[in-house]
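Meet today's protein:

…
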Amino acid sequence: MMNKFMFLTNYGFKKKLKSKAFIISNIILFILLVAITNIDHIIHFFGGDFNENVKIYVVDHTNESYEIFKENFLNISNSVASDGDSGSSIDDEKTEIILSDKKVDDLELEIKGKSDIIIEINQDLTNYLNATIISDGYIDSFTYQNIVQSISNTKYSIALKYSNIDPDELGKISLAPVIERFILDEDKSTEEENSNMIMSVVFPTVILPFFMLILLLIQMIGGEINEEKTTRSMEVIISNVSPKVHFFSKVVANNLFVILQAVLVFLYSIVGLIVRNVFASSGNMVDNLGGQVNGFFSTLSESGVMDKLAYVIPITLILMILSFVAYSLIAGVLASMTVNAEDYQQVQTPIIIICLIGYYLAVMAGMFNGSIFIKFLSYVPLISCLLSPALLIIGQISIIDSLISIVVMLLFVFICTKYGLRIYKIGILNYSTDKMWKKMFKAVKKN
C-alpha cells in the first residue's frame, strides 16, 4: 500500500511541476517580482531619471526672501536625510537653487520637458508674502512638501523681522507641546502599544499570500478530483488502489505543491532584492529601498516586535501547515460528492467564506482589544491559522492560547481524517448529486 501511495503522490506532484500552467505562471511571477522590486531602475534604463538634476528658479520680488528660502530648504533637506539615511528622497547635491532675474514667462519656456521648478515670491500687505510654484509636470511629493515648508518658514522669518514680538517668546509659542504617555497597567507598555499600531497594518499584508495559497489549494484538489470523475478515470484508479490511499496522496501532493510555491515566491523576492543590490549604482541613482527597509526594521525593533518573532514565526508556520492539511481534507471530501466543476464551485463556497472571515478578523484584530469573543475565535479551526498569529503578535492572546489553537487544530484534522474518509469512500464513485448532504451524514454515521 505504501508503494502505491508514494507512486500516486509522486505522480500527482510531478504532474503539477511539469504542467505548462505552473511553468508559465512561475516565469511570469518571477519576472513580475524582480521587476517590481527594481521598478525605478527599469524606468531609469528606458529613459526615466529618478535623480535628474533639478533646478529651482526663485523669482524674488521681495528682494529679501531668496537667501532665507534657500537656507530653509537646505536645512529641511539635511534634516530629512539625517532621519532617513539612504532612504531620503531629497538630495541637495542634485537640487540647485538659483536666484533668477528673468521673467516667469521666459522661465516657463526654459523648463519645458524638464523637472525644473519655478517659485515666484511676491510681497503681500496682509500676509507678508505669497508664492506661486510652477512646473512642467508633477513634483515629487517630498520635494513639494519641502518647498511648501520652506516658504512657510521664510514667511515666519520675515514676519518676525518686521514685528515687535520678542523672538524668544515667539519661539516658545511656535514650539510643539511636550506630550508624555503613561499607561497605568504595569503589564502594558508604550512600546507594545506602538507595536500594536504597526502590526495592525503590517500583519494583514504578510498573511495575504497565505490566504491566497489556501484558495489555490482548495481549487486544485477539487479540480483534480472532478476531472478524474468526469473522465471516468477514477474508476480505473480506485480499482487499483484503495480510496484511503488515493485520498491521502491527493492531500500530500497538493500540500507539497502549495508549500513549494510559497517557497518559490519567497525566493523570487530575494532574487529581486539581490538584483537591486547588485545593479544599483549609488553614484548615479539614490537607492531608497535599503534605507526604507533598514528604517522599517529599526522601527519594529524599537517597538519590541522583533523580540516576539522568535516564537511567533514557529507558531504561525505550524498553524499554517495544519490549516493547509485541514482545508485540503475538507476540499477533497466535498469534491468527492460532486460530479463536475460547477457543483464543486457551489459546495466550496462555505469554505472560502470561512477563510475570508478569518482574514478580515485578522485585519481588524487591533479593534477587539480585550474581547473574550475574539479570543474564543482564535481557537476555532480554519480561522485560527489567520487570527491567532495576528492576536499573538499584538499581545491580545498569550503563547498558551496559541498552543491551545494548535491542539484544537490537530484534533480537527484528526476528526476530518477519520470521518472525512468515510464520506470519501462512498462519494468517490458516486455520480449522483441528489440528496448529497443526506448521503454525507449517513456516511459519517456508518461504521
Remarks:
- The longest strand covers residues 117-124.
- Residues 83-92, 281-288 have pLDDT under 50 and may be disordered.
- The radius of gyration is 31 Å.
